[in-house]
Write a structure and sequence with these properties.
14 strands, Rossmann fold, 9 helices, alpha/beta, 2 domains, 286 residues, six-stranded mixed β-sheet, elongated
Length: 286
C-alpha cells in the first residue's frame, strides 16, 4: 500500500454549490498541497475526510481501510485556530484531548512542549499564533499520527514562524510511513515543502499529481493586441487585456500555436491559481 490517504468520488451539495466526485491520493512519505481559491471546496473536503461532514457518496480510506473511529489515532489535525479553551493551560490542552486517542503518549507530549519552547503552565490565550500552531502540532504528534491534515496553519504567521513550521513538516515526513495533506493559500510555503499538489476549482479537481508536473504544464504569456487573435484567445487561460497588451496562461504543449515571438515564462503556484480562477469566472459569464 503506497497511499496513506485515498479519496474516491466524494460528493456533497450545498444549495447551488456541489463538490463533484472528488478523488485524489496522498502517497506515503510525502507532503501533498491542497490548493484552490476561496469557496472552491477545500475545507468541506477536509471535513468529509475527517467525518465532520457526511458525504452524500464516495469513500475515504486511511492506510487501505475505510475511515471510521478506529482510524482516529492515525490522523493528526492542525487547523488555522486551535479549538482549545482560552483559559486552559498548555498542560490542560493535552489532558483534554488525550482521552480521544488510544495511542496518546503523555511523555511524548511533554517532550514536544519542551522542544517547541511551550511552557506547560502558560494559558492558551497567552500564546502567540505561532505558538498555538505548535501546540496543535505537539498534540497531533503525541498519538503517533501517520497522517497530518493541516487547514491554513501558517496563515497570519510572519515569515520566520512559517519557515519554522515548514521545517517541522519536512522533519515529520522523513519517516516514509508518514504523510501530510496541507491546505493553504500561502503557495510559497507549498513551493518549499510540497511534493504533490491537488488543485480544486469550483468543486472539481482540475489537477492532482506531482508539483513539478503542474508547474511545467503551464507558462505565462504576454503580448500586444496583434499577438492574440480570437483563435489564440481560446487557448489562453485567464486571458486579460490591459493597456496595449494582454496576459494569460497557456498549456506548454500549446505555446507553438501562438504567433512566433510571443514571450513565455515560467509560472508559480499562485499564478496558476489566479489564472485558472479568472478563466473559470470568464467561462461562468459566457
Amino acid at each position: 500500500m503506497n497511499n496513506i490517504l485515498e479519496v474516491r468520488d466524494l460528493r456533497k451539495s450545498y444549495g447551488a454549490f456541489t463538490l463533484k466526485d472528488i478523488s485524489f491520493d496522498v502517497p506515503k512519505g510525502y507532503i501533498c498541497g491542497f490548493v484552490g481559491p476561496n469557496g472552491a471546496g477545500k475545507t468541506t473536503t477536509i471535513k468529509m475526510i475527517l467525518n465532520i461532514v457526511r458525504a452524500e457518496s464516495g469513500s475515504v480510506k486511511i492506510s487501505g481501510k475505510d475511515h471510521g473511529t478506529e482510524s482516529n489515532d492515525k490522523i493528526g489535525v492542525v487547523m488555522d485556530m486551535p479549538m482549545y479553551v482560552d483559559e486552559w493551560t498548555v498542560a490542560d490542552a493535552g489532558s483534554a484531548v488525550s482521552p480521544f486517542y488510544a495511542g496518546w503518549d503523555s511523555e511524548k507530549y511533554a517532550e514536544y512542549l519542551h522542544g517547541f519552547g511551550l511552557d506547560p503552565k502558560k494559558k492558551v490565550n497567552e500564546l502567540s499564533r505561532g505558538m498555538k500552531i505548535k501546540l496543535q502540532i505537539a498534540a497531533a504528534l503525541s498519538h503517533d499520527a501517520r497522517l497530518l491534515i493541516l487547514d491554513e496553519p501558517t496563515s497570519g504567521l510572519d515569515p520566520a514562524a512559517r519557515d519554522e513550521i515548514c521545517d517541522l513538516l519536512r522533519e515529520f515526513v522523513t519517516d516514509e510511513d508518514k504523510s501530510i495533506l496541507f491546505s493553504t493559500h500561502i503557495t510559497s510555503d507549498l513551493e518549499k515543502v510540497a511534493d504533490y499538489i491537488t488543485f480544486i476549482l469550483d468543486g472539481e479537481i482540475v489537477f492532482t499529481g506531482r508539483k513539478d508536473d503542474l508547474l511545467e504544464k503551464y507558462v505565462r504569456v504576454t503580448g500586444g493586441p496583434e499577438d492574440a487573435g480570437e483563435e489564440h484567445k481560446k487557448l489562453i487561460i485567464g486571458y486579460r487585456e490591459y493597456g496595449e497588451g494582454f496576459e494569460g496562461m497557456i498549456e506548454t504543449a500549446n505555446i507553438g500555436k501562438l504567433p512566433r515571438g510571443v514571450p513565455a515564462e515560467a509560472v508559480n503556484l499562485e499564478e496558476i491559481i489566479v489564472f485558472m480562477n479568472r478563466g473559470n469566472a470568464l467561462n461562468d459569464e459566457a
